[in-house]
Records
---
Amino acid sequence: MTLLTNILAFNETFVENKEYEKFETTKFPDKRVVILTCMDTRLVELVTEAMNFKNGDVKIVRNAGAIVNHPFGSIMRSLLVAVYQLQADEVLVVGHHDCGMGSLSSDVIIDAMKERGIQQEVVDTLRNAGIEVDKWLSGFNSVEESVEHSVKMIKSHPLMVNSIPVHGLVIDPSTGKLDLVVDGYKKEEAL
């Protein structure tokens, strides 16, 4: 059996047994918060549990490293939708220690791409077209600095309402301990 076959078989039973009922909620976050965090498997349930959030309390946006790289990319769009359409009143950026994006090397990823069939010519074509592939595929050296950068990108976005507090935190994926990097309430006072 393939993974997909297993998923679909389980899902059939899940629906028949109405196991979905315990997850019923609205599309609006009860706590009016949107969280940007990493896609790391250790954080799937840990982030919300460590903050005392349950299903339906928050909106969660995930990507590699909890990074906002582009002011008009899909991450920023998702955060804006959460604020303007889904009633989020605060933003939490939650990076984590031992993140795979920490000190990630574009050379390592490009080599892995080549091993899986991507031709060097494709990478060269992108570079020649002005796409900064190496920068785009690079990680960060400090998770705290990365969180600060993402907070600043969100807070300074021309379409983000000024009154929204944007907080920055770092979580330990082993214990769930949170370290405060940016207190969005204090940032509000300074603006």
---
Amino acid sequence: MSITLVNPKELPAIELYHQVAVATGSRTVYIAGQVSWDADGKTVGAGDLAAQIAQSYRNVGIALAEVGATFADVAKLTVYVVDWTPDKMGAFVEGLSRVAAELGVAPVAPGTLIGVAALSDPDHLVEVEAIAVLD
């Protein structure tokens, strides 16, 4: 395993992710921002933040699998959410929990959530990008 996740004692432990990832592998994989498209390019979960988060994470998983990686190899996740406000955290956690249970993984690498005005398609509410490291 090329990623070790750490929560320093001096920083708060966040349930959704770890504060630090130590990567010791030799190949770095950059996954482009994934939105809630299905294989045909149709938006999944129009207007439903939880559904779009779940589909976006599924798509990250598909991209990782294509290069022989899994969420265990992810060193960093960045999530962009349109018109983010703290009251959307429930839908965010719901979507993340849904896909984690479905995929049997816990995507807990260090993460950053960024509120944005818009994404490339007005139907998209979320975009997720990842950096993974492989041996």
---
Amino acid sequence: MATVLVVDDAAFMRMRVAKLLKENGYNVEEAENGQVAVEKYAQIKPDMVLMDITMPVMDGLAALAEITRYDPGAKIVMCSALGQQNTVMAAIKAGAKDFIVKPYQPDKIISSIKRFVG
């Protein structure tokens, strides 16, 4: 069973996504900001990361850079309400595998995860 690290500063968003993933057979870990995500990634080495971009302490783009420096093969999908072209391109150039726009659509999350970890 694949483990997905869900990173979002909004607890209700983490809970909503975690519930969806658990219902679809995935193990879920959570982090409330990019700094915690970097630390947890090193500890648990999840199969995939779903990460918000706009967060306090360390934003998602900075965390993406840290994690891909540590593990160039990391499977990270960025999520944000900021569906702006430059943000999407920055995330992809920095190593993100995909980009999901909030509000989350359950089928998009599941299809993205299945594409990268089965």
